[in-house]
Amino acid sequence: MRTIDWVGDAVEIIDQTALPDNTIVRRLSTVDEVIEAIRSLAVRGAPAIGVAGALGVALAARLHADASEDLADAVARLRSARPTAVNLARGVDRAAARIPDGRDAVLAEATALMAEEEAASAAMARAGADLLGELCGDRPRLLTHCNTGALATVVGGTALGVVTELHRRGALGAVVASETRPLLQGARLTAWELGRAGVDFRVAVDGAGPFLMARGLIDAVIVGADRICANGDTINKIGTYAHALGARRAGLPFIVVAPESTVDVATATGAEVEIEDRGSAEVVGFATARTTPPGTEAVNPAFDVTPADLVTAIVTDQRVIRLDRGERI
Q: Which residues of the chain fall below pLDDT 70?
């Protein structure tokens, strides 16, 4: 099933905040509901929020008159719902460009984007599996970070799509999914998707990754991306940079898998990207439990920047870029 879709004049999503305990399909009938779902991470993952943004514009076009201030405001609020991933702004802009052609044209553009993301997942899975076979041989043991499966896209996935493709080929050794502090997207979402796919996996705390690499228990690291800059710097979930450093120290391939729509040639380096800080609440406690002394404040960057010189290769739906061989975006 699609994890985000347009159904009967509304957006439907699998609510990722309810997983793994409950699989809840939420129906989003207003632009404010779409924005809240993006900000609360009920829908997350760069390709998925790009689709959500485009479908949000289609919803806005049905709720507001053409060329109205309300419509323009809705588009602007959708575009800025989260600042770091480039796909959101691109999805919104692409759908909004069709507003002069009418609401049906806007919806057609949004659903075309959704179909393209589905096709991109399949292409990345094949290319990434082939690359890992070339770099690691048969049955590699992989470490992945955050969630990069169908929940982060529409179907299939980016890095996790490669993992499941290797599994389908009978060419996967095992997977370690890092927890992904502070919201545990790896422990909650990736583990849920790997279990449903029948993939052999274990969960590890984020800080264990480099040690597992050093001990020879990992053959390659494979992650997704929320933005890839013109020089190859990769913006991804916080903790990615540490895994890249661990992989470099252990001499392991570090592979980034993301659709071509995540490549942002207009941004020269990672230093230019606004990194979202999500505030203290997510760090000082979890669910209803406080884990720090009262009054504790936290720094909570949602993403980090992995320098291009730590990346072995970038796999998109259109190409494989071997940064380790001097290839450029």
A: 67
The structure's pTM equals 0.92
Under 8 Å between Cβ of 157 and 167? no
Instruction: Using alpha carbons, list the distances in angstroms from residue 29 to 12, 44, 58, 72, 100.
Output: 9, 18, 11, 18, 22
Is there a shared CATH topology between the 4-116 domain and the 127-325 domain? no
Cα–Cα distances in angstroms (integers) from residue 121 to residues 23, 188, 193, in the given order = 22, 21, 15
* Rounded CA separation 2/129 (Å): 22
Kindly report the CATH class assigned to 127-325.
alpha beta
Phi, psi of 14 (to 5 degrees): -80, 120
What gap in Å lies between CA 188 and CA 75, rounded to an integer?
A: 31
Tokens of 59: 């919803």
In words, the CATH class of domain 4-116 is mainly alpha
| Domain residue ranges in the chain | 4-116, 127-325
DSSP labels, 238-292: TTHHHHHHHHHHHT--EEEE--GGGEETTS-SGGGSPPPB--SHHHHEETTEE-S
Coil vs helix vs strand at 109: helix
Relative to beta strand 4-6, strand 11-14 is antiparallel
**What's the rounded Cα separation, in Å, for the pair 305 and 235?**
5
Residues assigned a catalytic role: 226
Which helix (H) or strand (E) covers residue 161, if one does? Answer: helix 159-168
Q: In whole numbers, what is the pLDDT of the chain averaged over residues?
A: 96
For residue range 223-240, what is the model confidence (pLDDT) as tens digits? 999 999 999 999 999 999
